[in-house]
Each structure stands twice: as C-alpha cells, then as structure tokens.
Amino acid sequence: MRTLAKYSGMGFQLFAACLAGAFIGKWLDAKMQLERPLWAVLLTVLFMVASLYALYKQLLRDDSASPNNP
After folding, report:
1. Which of 21, 53, 15 is nearest to 39 (CA)?
2. pLDDT, tens digit, 9 for 90 and up, residues 1-55
C-alpha cells in the first residue's frame, strides 16, 4: 500500500507541474496579448521536463536505498 501511495503521488506531482506551467503560461500569454499560446506551451514543456527529472532523481535515490540492491 505504501508503494502505491508513493507512485500515485509521483504521478500527481507530474500532473500538477504540467498544470502549473499551463496556467502560468496562459496568464503570461494574456498579459502580453500574444495571438499564439507561446508561453503556455513553453512553460508546460519546461515544467514537465523539470518534474520528470525530479522524479528520475527520486527513483534513483529510492532504488539505491532499497535493501534488495547489492
């Protein structure tokens, strides 16, 4: 059960990062009165990549702390 909670939390973290990037980008696009959603796309991708990197680092840390890892 603890593993399920940990991995679902990681999924939520990725979703929340993408959502935050989209909303901040949309706000910037409206503030700058841009016709195309440049900031929304850019920040969504940037936040997603940063979140995936953080998840990757967390998975590496969890794997190295595993008692089954020699």
Report:
1. 21
2. 777 888 888 899 999 999 999 999 999 999 999 999 999 999 999 999 999 999 9
67 DSSP assignment = T
Tokens (6 digits) for 20 = 């935050």
d(CA 26, CA 66): 41
Q: d(Cα 61, Cα 12) in Å, to the nearest integer? A: 19
The conformation of residue 70, written as its DSSP 8-state character, comes to -
Residues with Cβ within 8 Å of 47's Cβ and at least 6 positions away in sequence, in order, are: 17, 18, 20, 21
Closest CA to 42 of 16, 30, 56, 24: 24
Find tokens 């967390």 and name the residue.
Answer: 58
Q: Could you tell me the residue ranges of all domains in the chain?
A: 25-65
Residues sharing a CB contact under 8 Å with residue 53, sequence separation 6 or more, in sequence order:
none
